[in-house]
Structure formats: C-alpha cells, structure tokens
Amino acid sequence: MPIKIPNNLPAANILEGENIFVMNAARAYSQDIRPLRILILNLMPIKDVTETQLLRLLGNTSLQVEVDFIYTESYIPSHTPRDYLTEFYGTFAEVRHKKYDGFIITGAPVEQLPFEGVAYWDEVSEIMQWSRKHAYSTFHVCWGAQAGLYYHYGIPKYWMDKKIFGVYEHRLCVQHESLLRGFDDTFYVPHSRHTETRRADIERVPELTILSEGDAGPYIIANLKRRQFFITGHAEYDPLTLKAEYDRDLAAGMHPDIPLNYYPKDDPSRPPIVRWRSVAHLLFANWLNYYVYQGTPYELDSLDNTED
C-alpha cells in the first residue's frame, strides 16, 4: 500500500525512483480506506533529507500511511526556507486538536545544550505531554529519545569525551518482542552523538525495558504499556550520511575520527558498506504493524491513550 504525503513534496521524486509507492493527497482522498495517521515533529535543520529517510521506511509496508509534518514555532529553522515550511509543514497549534495513530520526534543538533537551554524546550515538552493522550504510539529518535527519557522519566544524558560515531554492533536483550521480530541476534546501526544515556539510570525506572543495546550503549528503550519507544541511533540514515558528517568536520579542521565499521579497511576513499538497511525496514515496519495498526482504534476520536 502507498504512503500519502503532501502534494509536490520533494521527497516524492526520490522515493518513486526507488519504487516506493507514494500517493498525493488528491488521489488518496478518492480511496475508501482509513489510513494510519502519523505525525512527525522534524527538528533536523535540513528537513527534506530527514523527510526522505523517514518516508522511505514508513512507505515500505502493506499499510496505507498518511503523514503530517510540524515544526517548532518557538524557534524558526534557519536552514529551511520559510515558504517550504508554509507549504509542507504545520505548527503544533494547528494539530493539537487532532489525534494520531503514531507520532515521531526526530533528532536535533542541540545535544551540547542542557535540555532546558534548548530554545524550543518548553514547546517540545508540551508536545511530548500532548502525545500521551493524542498518539497511540510514539517513536523518539536520537536527541528525541534523550529528550523523551528526560521529560517523561527524569533520565539524564552524559557528555562523552569521545564522539560515538560510526556503525555499531548491537544485540537483543529480550526474546519474542514484537518490535524486534525478524532481527538477527546481532545487528548494526549507525550512531552519531556526543552524549549517552546510561543503563543504570534506565534500570531505576520500573516502567522501562531495554530491548537492545551494544557497543554504543542502550539502543532501544521502551515503555511497552504506553507504547513509547526511545531509539538512540539512526537506522534511518542514508548510506552516505556518516560520510557527509565526516567530510564536513574534516573540512572544518576538527580532525574527526574515521566512522567505526563504515569504510572498508577504514579507507575513506572507498565507498562505505551499508550494514543497517534491513534493520531499519524491520524496525519501522514492526512498529507500524504491531504497535500502531493492530491496536489503534478505527475511530481515532475515541483514543484515550494513557493514564495521567
């Protein structure tokens, strides 16, 4: 089934070139199907890149998915033209009366700041609180995961002396968990961050379960009752995303380490090896199927998601 996206969204051409079935709003309205409604709070500066990465994964499923994008009003992104935001994005004020099957909050390039020091922290906090009653299941990615763990459960982040940068091996911490269905016993996922979330802090919260961890620390943390997932890595990354970050930092004279487990024989002149593509598709497909589609009410207005 297709993914429904706004008319003329630039990601559509890329996805169609990859044989991912996309459908514009006009065509979708002609079908008598109740699609899954997903809201994405995109906090990344280059929004069209993140849009394409997420839509690629949300669109590789037998379910019809309808996506809304929002940005923060308290901090207007400087790397995305205002007319682009006007055409393809809304604000929280415009969607706060709605309910969604799923909600995704992306990473953000603000990890060097304390949470309360982020310009849009109050707004993001309000949105995360809103999501508990207005989204059946929530997916927090990278900084979004750290922010969610801090806001909902008081779990801090810690600065690392050395950047976690590369493609890291992970293992499963639980058996027979639906979100991990089809995963190998060990698998690889990209990470790119200067901060970490520690197992000891997570284990002090009875509602939370570490579903997967690895050489980069806890990777997937969940409150299964509330259907909240906190993903510390970037399975959605394109093959060349880490290369772009490495080349950028190298050009800026920052002397970055070569990304771990990325280039053949650690040679940046050679094309990187993609080890995480199947993991990314499984992760998002399992979330949509087992934690969104199979539980969300047909009439979204009847959604009463979690206790206060």
UniProtKB/TrEMBL annotation:
Residues flagged as site, Important for substrate specificity: S192
Catalytic activity, as annotated: L-homoserine + acetyl-CoA = O-acetyl-L-homoserine + CoA
Keyword Nucleotide-binding listed: no
Residues annotated for substrate binding in this entry: K163, S192, R248
Single GO cellular component term: cytoplasm
Gene Ontology molecular function terms on file: homoserine O-acetyltransferase activity; homoserine O-succinyltransferase activity
EC class (word): transferase
Cross-referenced Pfam families: HTS
EC number in record: 2.3.1.31
Annotated SUPFAM superfamilies: Class I glutamine amidotransferase-like (SSF52317)
GO biological process: L-methionine biosynthetic process from homoserine via O-succinyl-L-homoserine and cystathionine
Alphabetical keyword list: Acyltransferase, Amino-acid biosynthesis, Cytoplasm, Methionine biosynthesis, Transferase
InterPro entries: Class_I_gatase-like, HST_MetA, MetA_family
UniProt subcellular location: Cytoplasm
Marked site (Important for acyl-CoA specificity) residue numbers: E111
Transcription regulation is among the record's keywords: no
Catalytic residues of the enzyme: C142 (acyl-thioester intermediate), H234 (proton acceptor), E236
Function: Transfers an acetyl group from acetyl-CoA to L-homoserine, forming acetyl-L-homoserine.
NCBIfam families: metA
PANTHER family (UniProt xref): HOMOSERINE O-SUCCINYLTRANSFERASE (PTHR20919:SF0)
UniProt similarity note: Belongs to the MetA family.
Protein's name in the database: Homoserine O-acetyltransferase
